[in-house]
Amino acid sequence: MVKGLQNKVALVTGAAQGIGRGIALRLAQEGAHIALVDMKQDRLNDVQQEIQALGVNASTFIADVSDREQVYAAINHAEQALGGFDVMINNAGIAQVQAIADITPDEFQKIVDINIGGVLWGIQAAAAKFKQREHKGKIINACSIAGHDGFALLGIYSATKFAVRALTQAAAKEYASHGITVNGYCPGIVGTDMWVEIDKRFAEITGAAIGETYKKYVEGIALGRAQTPDDVAALVAFLASEDSDYITGQSILTDGGIVYR
């Protein structure tokens, strides 16, 4: 158990599946009430039921994180539905597997709007709410190993995650005087639906067999296995807790040993 999450209110974007679901469940296990935000209502309802079975409250809200007004509305909903607002997890994001030479303007804009815009609006809206409520808060952003090393065929995805690291550092400096900490978590090869799609796209572009790219990356992990959402959620729970109060501006690798910094 981590310290100080009992009865806190945490908002998690991209909470309907994968890493976001894992984070939401872990924070709920720590006693936090969870505002679940995603585009998939049916899956949100399932996660809400899982969380409520743990004895804490959960609300759902449909929002596109690339839309600034929707992000602000999601935070207002969390405050009203759950009676507070303490932790913002900017988890929502998409991957894009494409050679740099083949990226179109529309593809570029979509991933930038979600992966960078979603984090920017989440930081902005959360910090404004924390200041309005006149209390400290924690903002935690989804980065990636691709935010530390650029990966071939993941060029724009990598660029968006480098941008998340920069936003995390800048926001940490800007909001420190308000008692707001801003950190990031950088997963590696996580066995989720997103990686299934990444593997398929690598197969289409390179001619590799389905599953071959995923297997290759997993074989390069020092600890010898793929990551799970629970692995990521453990770090996020720490960053959301009082145990991390003296940490800010960091984007911490949690990858089992792929990228070393």
From TrEMBL:
Keywords: NAD, Oxidoreductase
Alphabetized GO MF terms: diacetyl reductase ((S)-acetoin forming) (NAD+) activity; quinone binding
Keyword NAD recorded: yes
Transmembrane spans: none
Uppermost EC category: oxidoreductase
Keyword Acetylation: no
GO biological process: acetoin catabolic process; fatty acid biosynthetic process
NCBIfam families: 23BDH, PRK07231.1
Assigned protein family: Belongs to the short-chain dehydrogenases/reductases (SDR) family.
Protein name per UniProt: diacetyl reductase [(S)-acetoin forming]
Biological source species: Acinetobacter baumannii 6014059
